[in-house]
Amino acid sequence: MQNRFASLFIAALLPLLLFRWFIPTPVGQLDFWLMWLLAMVVVGLPLLYAEIGLAHRSQKIPAKGIQELTREADTSTIWRSFVWLTVLLSLVVAGLSIDAVSANLLQATQELGLSLQVPDYALGVIMVIIAAMLSLLGGSTLVASLVLIAIAFVMAAVTNISSISLIMTEPSLGEWARAVTLALVSVGVGTGLFWFNNPLVSRDPNHSAEIGRNTREIATKTVLPIWLTQLVIGSVALIFTTGSFAPITTIVYAFGVLAASAFFMHYASAQIANIFQRFGIWIATAISMVLTILLVVIATPQSLAVLLVVVSVVSALVLAIFSGWQMKISHMRKSLNFSSEGVYNLWRVAIRILVPLLIIVAVAGWILS
């Protein structure tokens, strides 16, 4: 599903799937909402432009495109680690989602009188295996996951809307850390998903980007629909994601998580298969499955959420530094194709200085809190 709609579906899915881990209690804190909105503008938006710019420049999936970009920039191959961060982050998202929903699913079935006599981790492993098999269907599970999870949120909203109250609390560094984390999760920073699913990106490893670069696609036409979708769906997720799910709602949500995890595992497997071409998609899928099982069995949802934060932060910094400091100015200017030089300079200041600084401040907030 390599088209503009795939990026919009991903943009809608990520907040619904991941927001629950980083929203403070109570949920109706206006100061936190404003911080998240600010982080979406000053951190998320420049990083999204950076990822789309790299996609336009390379016109190959991240596993192949980053190799070409580092050669063009005549920079260290250490920046190619970004691809491994995308693989790890996508598998962490899959593992966290399955690990968290498996315990809720057991409780839901018990309330419905359908007791499953299996431990949490065993159900999680079974779900990972099913997700790995579904991942062989490619990106087709993305739409199913979004529909099922959206239905679960609508079902939950009916019972939880009356319990939400808006309050103003004292802003803190810890709140800023959570707001930045939500902005990174919203944008999908570090996953490379919007790069991978960009319409200009070719799956052909022998594809030459030189011809396509002459089209000078405007990055804003791709970035703004994605960002606005994240902003709208993120606002909905902020309101309803902390509400408790009824048993039926939990089951619907669990099927959505299963389909979403299949999509993330498909993405990770495709990257692995392109890094090690001798493996093929079947071996790459087996590797993704084993790694995800290890995450589900060894780690708790809380520890996986911490790992998600750490990998997201590292990936965001790598993306910001590489696109802002390592890429040639002329290459990024042509790839982004802004309407004016002033807008490009504003983005460049943000990606080189503001974004890394604010992320570091957020890290300090996490440590202190």
From TrEMBL:
InterPro entries xref list: SNS_sf
Transmembrane region(s): 32-50, 81-101, 121-139, 146-167, 179-197, 218-240, 246-267, 279-298, 304-325, 346-368
Source superkingdom: Bacteria
Keyword tRNA-binding found: no
UniProt keywords, alphabetically: Membrane, Transmembrane, Transmembrane helix
Protein name as annotated: Uncharacterized protein
